[in-house]
Amino acid sequence: MASPTVLLFDLGGVLVENVGFERMNALLPTPSPEEELKTRWLSSPAVRAFETGLCSPETFAAGVVAEYRLEISPETFLEAFTGWPRGLYAGAEELLAQLRARYKVACLSNSNALHWQRFGGFVEHFHVSLSSHLLGVVKPDAVCFEAAMRQCGVDAADAAFFDDSYVNVEAARRFGLRAFHVNGLAEVRRALVAEGWL
Fold first, then answer.
1. Residue 47 contacts by C-beta under 8 Å, 6 or more apart in sequence?
2. Mean pLDDT across the chain
3. Which residue(s) pair with 12 in the sheet?
4. One CATH from 2.30.300.10, 1.20.1410.10, 2.60.40.10, 3.40.50.1000 for 6-17+87-195
């Protein structure tokens, strides 16, 4: 099989250190296994509204506190939530620079105005930088992958996708992408090396 022309990366938990699910679990009345928590988060009405740009941060925070029955105020939750992404993992910037010399490198993140603005949309690291709140669609919905392929100018068969959520990876495969479940930069590197792309 030919090498892809586009490498498409999720951000949090893949290239960006994100303590969100660990912190969220600590707030829950009953903690959940991380993969279950990721799946629940992806289907949350409050999260989906915020990460498609349809509600304010305050409405999102109130929705999450009510939906998850958190024993903190929406204001306290929102303050904590803003700091969940920590920035690129050590070595990620160098890896992306190396990949950009050979591939069109893109990101596709379920994100929001608060997090996206903190990091300037990561535009210096990607040829194409995509966030759900700007696209108006979220992973794992097929329309999100369709929008990403349109923005990247390729068919799904010409792209490879890396994400830390099984739900998103399975949806990407159904869409026709070569998709890889990875947690953290070391697993990204291993997958790239195993495929002969690095």
1. 41, 60, 64
2. 96
3. 16
4. 3.40.50.1000
Q: How many residues does the chain have?
A: 198
Share of the chain above pLDDT 90, in %: 97
Contacts of residue 117, defined as CB under 8 A and 6 or more positions apart, other chains included, come to none
CATH architecture for the domain at 19-85: Orthogonal Bundle (1.10)
Q: Which two tokens stand for residue 4?
A: 């892809």
Q: Would strands 6-9 and 104-109 be described as parallel, antiparallel, or unpaired?
A: parallel
List, in sequence order, every beta strand (DSSP E) within the chain: 6-9, 16-18, 85-88, 104-109, 128-131, 159-163, 178-181
Contacting residues for 123 by C-beta, under 8 A, at least 6 apart:
129
Q: What is the pLDDT of residues 64-100, one digit of tens each?
A: 999 999 999 999 999 999 999 999 999 999 999 999 9
Could you tell me how far CA 25 lies from the centroid of its own chain? 18
φ/ψ (deg, to 5) at 111: -140, -170
- CA 83 to chain CA mean position, Å: 16
Q: Could you read off the pLDDT of 130-176 as tens digits, one per residue?
A: 999 999 999 999 999 999 999 999 999 999 999 999 999 999 999 99
- Three-state DSSP at 105 gives strand
Tell me the β-bridge partners of 7. Answer: 105, 160
- The pairing of strands 85-88 and 16-18 is antiparallel
